[in-house]
Amino acid sequence: MQKPAESAAPEDAPGAVPEAVPDWLPALLAGDRAALARAITAVENETADARLVLQAIRGRLGHALVVGFTGAPGAGKSTLVSAYVGELRQRSQSVGVVAVDPSSPLTGGAILGDRIRMSQHAADPGVFIRSLASRGHLGGLSRTAARVIDVFDASGRDVVVVETVGTGQSEVEIAEIADVRVVVNAPGLGDDVQAIKAGILEIADVLVVNKSDLPLAERSARQLAAMTAQRGSAPVPVLQTSATTGKGIAELADAIAAIGRRKRPDPRARTRRLLQNLVLDRLRRGLTDLPAGELDTLADAVLTGRLDIEAASHQIIDLLLSRLPKQT
C-alpha cells in the first residue's frame, strides 16, 4: 500500500529534499506514479536529475522487501513473476517490478518481452512495471538496476520484484541486491542440474520447479531437494508451481514472506553493488580512452621479457588513476 504524503523535513534531516531540485521529487517520496516514472527514467539514463533523485531518497531506504527471480531462459520466470505479483495484490501489497530484458541490437533499449507478459497488471495502480535493458551487462542485471530498486523502495512500494535476463554459473549478481532469491527451474533437468549446481543453485533461498503440470516435475523437485540437502546448510524449500493454473503460487508467496521476515532488507548491499559498478565503469571508460601507443609499449615490454604482465597491469592502473577527474 502506498504511503501518505509526508510533511517537508528540514534540509539536514535524513531523506530531506534539497531546495534546488525538480518540483516532482516530493511527489516521488509520497508514492506518486508519474513522479516515480520520471525518477526511474532519470536514474536509468543517468540524466542531470539522477544525482538529485539519489540525494532525495537517502534515508528513505529499507522499507521494501526485494525479491529476485532468476534461472535459465525458458523456465517461465516472467509468467511466474506475473502470478506472484497477482498474489501479492490479493494480499493488498504494492509492488514494483524491475524486469531486465535483453537489449535490442538496433536501439540498445529493452525488448519489453516481460512487460508484455505482465500486461494484465498494467491498469493496477498498485503495480508499477519497468523493463530495463541489460545493455550487454553480464551478471543477469542491468547496470542501473540497483538504483531503480532504491527508487521503488523510497516511493513506498512494499515489495520490489527483480527478474533477471537469465543466468549461468557466473551470473549471480542477484544474490548481492535481493533480500530473497528465487531460482526457477523447468521440469526434466536431469544431468543439467550437475552442470549448474556450482553456480546459481547455491544462491537460492527458494527453489521452484515451474510448469509442474509437465512430466518429470516430481523427479526434478526430488533432485533439487537432494542437492540442497548435500550443502550442509539450512534446508532450502523446493516448491512446484504452475503459473498458468495458479498451483503453488500462494505457497511460494508464503515461503518468500517467511524468509523475508527472517532477513532484514539490506539497502547497503545494493549500494555496495552500485559503488562497484561505478568504479568498474570508470576504469573501463578510462581503459578505452588510453592511447594505443601506451598500451603497445607495455605489451612490447611484456613480450620481450623486460616487464612481467602483473607489473604491466599495475602500470596501466596507475595510468588510469592519474587520468581520472578530481572531485571537488
User: Main β-sheet: number of strands, strand sense, barrel status?
Assistant: 7 strands, parallel
Order of helices and strands: HHHEHEHEHEHEHEHEHHHH
Low-confidence stretches: 1-19, 103-114, 135-140
The gyration radius over C-alpha positions equals: 22 Å
Strand order in the largest sheet: 3-2-4-1-5-6-7
CATH class of the largest domain: Alpha Beta
Structure class = alpha/beta
For this structure, the CATH topology of the largest domain is Rossmann fold
In angstroms, what separates the terminal alpha carbons? 41 Å
Count of helix runs: 13
**Total domains:** 3
* Helical coverage, percent range: 40-55%
The CATH architecture of the largest domain is: 3-Layer(aba) Sandwich
| Beta-strand content bin | 5-15%
- What's the number of extended β-strand segments? 7
Principal-axis shape equals globular
Mean pLDDT: 79
CATH superfamily of the largest domain: P-loop containing nucleotide triphosphate hydrolases
